[in-house]
Amino acid sequence: MHKTTESSSIARDAAAPPVQRRDARSNRARILHVAQGVLADNPDATINDVAAAAGVVRRTVYAHFASREALIDGIALEAADSISAALGRVPAADESAVTVFVRQTLALTRVGDQYRLLLAVARTDLGHNSIHDLLGPMRESAAAVIRRGQREGVFSSYLAAEVLILNIEAIALSILDATNAGAIGDPAGATTTSSLVLLGIAPDDAERIVADIRSSDSSARAR
Fold this sequence. Notes:
Helix content: over 70%
Oligomer: single chain
Strand content: under 5%
Distance between the termini: 64 Å
């Protein structure tokens, strides 16, 4: 009888670690999710701010991330993965530069908080050159589309594509902030249309282009 009880105890102990690991993964994922919004709103937010927003004690955050810098690196990596996945779903083979640019920008705004996080943190002096590196491939992808549009004469060439991308990022960040403040109801449309205007397309044409591509994509998904 004693052996049976002991065996049952050992079995329970052996089963416990996977459950604990699942709980730990769940807590870590929740902290990362909450921290994305907190740091996007305030890049200077502290571990205490993140813990309070997540409804946990500071010790719980430190159990997963040894420092504020480690937390930022963790959420930046997750954000970059999500953004890369979103951009990877944008078809670019035989479409016009305008269409590809619009679809890329719409894809970025669909992961708005994560994109805003990277932009906001990259604009502050946190010593995180790795975040600039994470944004590098995204910037180059968009710059390549802009250069193509400039060669085709559909985008203006008054500034280099690399400079235009930085201006577009500033527009995206301000629109996402305005959305959080309740001033804008369609951040995806506003960001994409404003970006096209910055690239030299007339406002009315930019609105129509964005609306047409959205409608076309919606129809394709419905089929």
